[in-house]
């Protein structure tokens, strides 16, 4: 790929063009996750009762999983929290 190739339509596929395309693909893939998280957090801030339910479920999940109340959770542990799915509409 070191050699630059010029296609029939005049577009050159350079190293910089490939880097730019890969960067665009990465940003596009993370943007949807960011928007979903931002929306979910704004909904939780607007609804304190839902925020409290979610906090209770996360703490209970951490305690059940790790045996302590304060613990880091893995992504799999969040499957036990039903409020997250209801809040962001995935359930």
TrEMBL record:
Q: Which GO terms describe its molecular function?
A: heme binding; iron ion binding; monooxygenase activity; oxidoreductase activity, acting on paired donors, with incorporation or reduction of molecular oxygen
**The organism's place on the tree of life at top rank:** Eukaryota
Subcellular localization is given as: Membrane
Is GTP-binding one of the keywords UniProt gives this record? no
Q: Which protein family is it in?
A: Belongs to the cytochrome P450 family.
Gene3D superfamilies named among the record's database cross-references: Cytochrome P450
Coiled-coil-forming residues are none
Q: How does it sit in the membrane?
A: Single-pass membrane protein
This protein is called: Cytochrome P450
List the InterPro entries.
Cyt_P450, Cyt_P450_E_grp-I, Cyt_P450_sf, Cytochrome_P450_71
List keywords of the entry alphabetically: Membrane, Oxidoreductase, Transmembrane, Transmembrane helix
User: Can you name the source organism?
Assistant: Miscanthus lutarioriparius
Gene Ontology CC, one term: membrane
Tell me, in one coarse class, where this protein mainly resides: membrane
């Amino acid at each position: 790929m070191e050699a630059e190739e010029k296609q029939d339509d005049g577009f050159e596929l350079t190293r910089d063009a490939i880097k730019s395309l890969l960067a665009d693909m990465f940003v596009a893939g993370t943007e949807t996750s960011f928007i979903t998280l931002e929306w979910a957090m704004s909904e939780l801030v607007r609804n304190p009762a839902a925020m409290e339910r979610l906090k209770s479920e996360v703490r209970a999940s951490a305690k059940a999983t790790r045996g302590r109340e304060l613990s880091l959770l893995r992504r799999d542990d969040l499957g036990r929290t039903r409020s997250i799915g209801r809040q962001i509409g995935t359930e």
